[in-house]
């Protein structure tokens, strides 16, 4: 039997779009200040999870909610289970949007909304793929389980909990990256540099803050400093204007007597590709580092300006590594926090590393320590350390997915390894597959995130064919 997958998707286009738009309207940013026993990551991620599971119930699937952490939508029977992993949480919208990030807009063939490409759009494409297979009553020999997460962007607490209660599927994919396939992912660990809150110089760093998440390049940064005199304040204002002219940043500066408040704007990007962003935090540190700060404030600024600024591959900070298959280590300074006289545990720069095979988190910590100990920084490692992950090209899962991609696009499939950690790595035989196509503008984690309607529908057809071939 030949099935025209594209036609099957086209016939359900209006329903798919309506379901997707309703899902995108839910602001599902994690909010720990509002978490409760039944909303472990705050109400937004829970509501989006429940909404997605509701589609599964409506459409007659077997649905399970695992205590509002995660859930699944299941179809078919068999000894083996194919898992598909999507997530309903989103990173914070941030600034710079032309439209309301939580009121989706279809314009020029593009769907604009936070989550349109990461990961509600691709998840909806995969869900409709499963729906098509069910509605066509295609014979399958394996069970298919669409696992819906709600904490992918922060700590993966959803999947930790889910797998304490549910069995792991045997193999599978996550629609949360790009085609043709992601069959390898770098390791992922965060090291926080801590600094004492003292100041002893002519200039005082009262406050410094930048960034929303470890895995995002900070798009904005602000600081408040005390300077020796009103004249010094005026000079600093002038210097800042020159700095924003000479660098790819903008900002505002406001003096009030001896106190100056500065806000600097760069460009946010995904933390796995820090070179694609303009880190507002390190640029602001670079500007301030020319002044006579001392103590912990100075160490904080000097470390950011000297070792971290534009050190995307860890060369200045002593942690550069490269692997023939996985490429270079990348480093993103995603969070900056400093307040004068605050405890050392509260003053930090969070560095998120994506590291290739051949090096461990212990190695990175030691190497980094050799450099930053000179600045009196101490290192604390984040809770999560994910080792590099790789599924060989000749694994039937990878081979099948690449074949489906080739059949639908006419393009040659090939293996790819990225720095982003997707749910693909949850399974030993797990990969990421779509939904971005080659040549696509990557807007994940950025303002004006979008997914094109054509790509969404093309991806749904590819997913349907792929699920069928893997599970029949
Ligand atoms: Zn993401
Ligand atoms: Zn994602």
Strand proportion: 25-35%
Remind me, CATH topology of the largest domain? Aminopeptidase
Please tell me the CATH architecture of the largest domain by its name. Answer: 3-Layer(aba) Sandwich
CATH-level-4 superfamily name of the largest domain? Zn peptidases
Question: Strands across the major sheet, in which order?
Answer: 13-14-12-11-17-18-10-19
Indicate the mean pLDDT: 96
User: How many strand units?
Assistant: 24
Please tell me what the overall shape is: elongated
Span from first to last CA? 12 Å
Q: Low-confidence stretches at least 5 residues in length (pLDDT < 50)?
A: none
Percent of residues in helices comes to 25-40%
Q: Briefly, what CATH class of the largest domain?
A: Alpha Beta
Biggest sheet architecture: 8 strands, antiparallel
Tally of individual domains: 2
What compounds sit in this structure? zinc ion
Radius of gyration, in Å, reads 24 Å
Number of helical regions: 11
Q: Which structural class is indicated by helix and strand composition?
A: alpha+beta
């Amino acid at each position: 039997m030949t099935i025209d997958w594209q036609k099957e998707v086209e016939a359900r286009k209006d329903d798919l779009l309506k379901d997707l738009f309703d899902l995108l309207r839910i602001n599902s940013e994690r909010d720990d200040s509002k978490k409760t026993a039944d909303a472990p990551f705050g109400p937004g991620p829970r509501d989006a999870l429940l909404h997605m599971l509701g589609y599964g119930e409506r459409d007659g699937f077997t649905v399970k909610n695992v205590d509002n952490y995660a859930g699944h939508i299941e179809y078919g029977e068999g000894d083996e289970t194919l898992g598909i992993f999507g997530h309903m949480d989103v990173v914070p919208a941030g600034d710079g949007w032309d439209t309301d990030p939580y009121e989706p807009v279809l314009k020029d063939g593009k769907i604009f909304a936070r989550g349109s490409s990461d990961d509600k759009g691709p998840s909806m494409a995969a869900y409709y793929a499963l729906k098509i297979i069910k509605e066509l009553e295609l014979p399958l020999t394996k069970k298919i389980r669409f696992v819906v997460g709600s904490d992918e962007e922060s700590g993966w607490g959803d999947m930790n909990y889910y797998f304490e209660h549910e069995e792991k599927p045997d193999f599978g994919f996550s629609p949360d990256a790009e085609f043709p396939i992601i069959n390898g992912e770098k390791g992922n660990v965060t090291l926080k540099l801590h600094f004492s809150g003292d100041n002893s110089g002519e200039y005082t760093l009262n406050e410094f803050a930048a960034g929303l998440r470890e895995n995002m390049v900070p798009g904005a940064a602000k600081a408040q400093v005390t300077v020796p005199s009103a004249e010094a304040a005026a000079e600093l204002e002038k210097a800042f204007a020159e700095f924003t002219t000479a660098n790819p940043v903008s900002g505002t500066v406001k003096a009030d007597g001896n106190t100056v408040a500065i806000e600097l704007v760069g460009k946010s990007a995904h933390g796995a590709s820090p070179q694609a962003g303009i880190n507002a935090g390190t640029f602001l540190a670079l500007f301030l580092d020319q002044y006579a700060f001392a103590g912990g404030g100075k160490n904080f600024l000097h470390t950011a300006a000297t070792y971290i600024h534009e050190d995307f591959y860890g060369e200045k900070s002593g942690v550069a590594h490269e692997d023939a298959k996985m490429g270079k280590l990348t480093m993103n300074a995603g969070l900056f926090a400093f307040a004068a006289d605050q405890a050392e545990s509260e003053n930090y720069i969070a560095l998120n590393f994506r590291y290739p095979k051949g090096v461990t988190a212990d190695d990175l910590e030691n190497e980094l320590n050799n450099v930053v100990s000179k600045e009196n920084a101490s290192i604390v490692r984040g809770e999560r350390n994910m080792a590099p992950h790789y599924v060989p090209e000749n694994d039937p899962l990878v081979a099948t997915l690449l074949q489906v991609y080739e059949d639908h696009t006419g393009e040659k499939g090939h293996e790819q390894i990225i720095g982003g950690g997707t749910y693909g790595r949850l399974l030993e035989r797990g990969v990421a597959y779509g939904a971005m196509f080659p040549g696509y503008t990557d807007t994940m984690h950025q303002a004006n995130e979008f997914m094109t309607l054509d790509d969404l529908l093309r991806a749904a057809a590819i997913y349907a064919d792929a699920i069928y071939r893997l599970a029949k």
